[in-house]
């Protein structure tokens, strides 16, 4: 009989279109981890909040994977900052589903702090052990966003409660582990580092000439790429300002900015897009900046492969999947020296690290790399090798499965579990 795992991802559905404000790395993490665990023989149920009355209660998404849309608040899109009030309803309705279906889950894998709160309650009700991947920490977010952060003030206290009650905490990189220990007093023995990954089926090198032809791009231009959610903390403004500082070379420069809330860029519907366009206009490089809008994942490999360099300079980044996807396509990364980026990018081998919000430092690294074809070629090769060795979803799923098995064994032996709870 297949072992059953429940995923909770209250705001980030694996079925969501990526690129919007609340759709990004967590959606990919949940989807890809579930896919690979299912292929390894697990039965996965993913519980997420219902955002549309037309959504089926249960979606048989892929073999071995169901997506269950839980009623929690209005059946419409609600910003994740406003969802905490609906978590008791989420817990109640998920509990009813478990009872009605008479399912014995081996483990609950919660994603994000509000899902962790639900998992805490379900552990008490059903005695199901749970694993938590926070994906982002409120304390760190508050350090950088300050009053712009609109999450409830109780978030950090809830995260501390979740960390204390979780059977295992998955940190996505060493920085994540340190933050959990230093800011939350998390038990180091309960923390396991398991990184994010990339899909080998979706991301692989495409011939640069063919990729540019596919996208209608100048075959002879220097092309730099920024791809991801269009929110201020991602530092897209920093990339635009850096592009304005690049030295004039023999080739034209194009900066591609992929992402946003809509397929066709519309500054009237996106304040952040309008702000970025205004910056490009002020820096006098609007003609060299191409805002593409949101793209399907099937198209992204062409953008990564068409670029000479991928740039990502967020203020902070719990992990960051886009650098992995870029390296998988053979495109070096220049990224912020923060969080997961400084874990996934090997400086001098697969790209460079720079301070966030330092356009001149970023411009210097871009210029340096664009003017050293031998180094650029070496980094392309090293990038592909590094991510395929360390960051495939298959490897991540294997690590997660081993963790579930260890947790199941501990639960099967009450004395072991008692020692864990005492240590916590």
Could you give a short description of this structure?
The chain has about 425 residues and is of the alpha/beta class.
Decide which structural class fits the backbone: alpha/beta
CATH class of the largest domain: Alpha Beta
How many domain units?
2
CATH architecture of the largest domain: 3-Layer(aba) Sandwich
* CATH topology-level name of the largest domain: Rossmann fold
Uncertain ranges: 414-424
Please give a structural write-up.
This protein has 424 residues and is α/β, with parallel strands linked by helices. The protein folds into 2 domains: 4-197 and 393-423, 3-Layer(aba) Sandwich (Rossmann fold), CATH 3.40.50.2000; 208-390, Glycogen Phosphorylase B (Rossmann fold), CATH 3.40.50.2000. Helices cover 44% and strands 16% of the residues. It contains 16 helices and 14 strands. The strands form 2 sheets. Strands 3-4-2-1-5-6-7-8 form an 8-stranded mixed sheet, with helices on both faces. A 6-stranded parallel sheet has the order 11-10-9-12-13-14, with helices on both faces. Strand 1, helix 1 (25-39) and strand 2 (43-49) form a beta-alpha-beta unit. Helix 1 crosses helix 15 and helix 3 (113-126) packs across helix 5. The longest helix is centred in the C-terminal third of the chain and has 20 residues, at 393-412. It is globular. Residues 414-424 have low confidence and may be disordered.
């Amino acid at each position: 009989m297949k072992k059953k795992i429940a995923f909770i991802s209250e705001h980030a559905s694996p079925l969501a279109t990526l690129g919007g404000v609340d759709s990004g790395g967590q959606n990919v993490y949940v989807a890809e981890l579930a896919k690979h665990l299912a292929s390894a023989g697990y039965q996965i149920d993913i519980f997420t909040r219902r955002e549309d009355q037309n959504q089926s209660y249960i979606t048989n998404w892929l073999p071995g994977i169901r997506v269950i849309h839980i009623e929690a608040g209005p059946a419409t899109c609600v910003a994740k900052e406003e969802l905490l009030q609906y978590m008791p309803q989420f817990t109640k309705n998920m509990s009813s589903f478990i009872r009605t279906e008479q399912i014995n889950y081996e483990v609950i894998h919660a994603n994000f702090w509000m899902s962790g709160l639900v998992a805490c309650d379900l552990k008490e009700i059903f005695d199901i052990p749970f694993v938590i991947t926070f994906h982002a920490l409120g304390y760190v977010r508050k350090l950088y966003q300050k009053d712009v952060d609109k999450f409830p003030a109780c978030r950090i206290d809830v995260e501390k409660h979740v960390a204390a009650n979780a059977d295992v905490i998955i940190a996505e990189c060493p920085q994540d582990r340190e933050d959990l220990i230093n800011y939350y007093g998390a038990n180091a023995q309960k923390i396991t580092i398991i990184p994010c990954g990339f899909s080998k089926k979706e991301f692989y090198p495409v011939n640069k000439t063919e990729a540019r032809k596919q996208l209608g791009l100048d075959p002879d231009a220097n092309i730099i790429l920024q791809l991801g959610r269009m929110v201020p903390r991602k530092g897209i403004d920093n990339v635009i300002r850096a592009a304005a500082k690049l030295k004039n070379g023999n080739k034209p420069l194009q900066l591609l900015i992929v992402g946003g809330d809509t397929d066709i860029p519309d500054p009237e519907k996106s304040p952040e897009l309008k702000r970025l366009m205004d910056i490009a206009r002020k820096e006098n490089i609007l003609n060299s900046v191409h805002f593409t809008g949101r793209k399907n994942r099937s198209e992204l490999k062409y953008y990564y492969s068409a670029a000479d360099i991928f740039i990502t300079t967020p203020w902070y980044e719990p992990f960051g999947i886009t650098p992995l996807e870029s390296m998988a396509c053979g495109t070096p990364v220049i990224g912020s020296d923060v969080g997961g980026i400084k874990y996934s990018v090997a400086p001098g081998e697969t790209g460079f690290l720079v301070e966030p919000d330092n356009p001149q430092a970023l411009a210097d690294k871009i210029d340096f790399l664009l003017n050293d074809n031998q180094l650029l070629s070496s980094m392309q090769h090293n990038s592909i090798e590094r991510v395929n060795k360390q960051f495939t979803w298959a490897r991540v799923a294997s690590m997660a499965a081993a963790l579930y098995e260890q947790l199941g064994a501990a639960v099967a032996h009450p004395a072991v579990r008692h020692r864990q709870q005492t240590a916590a």
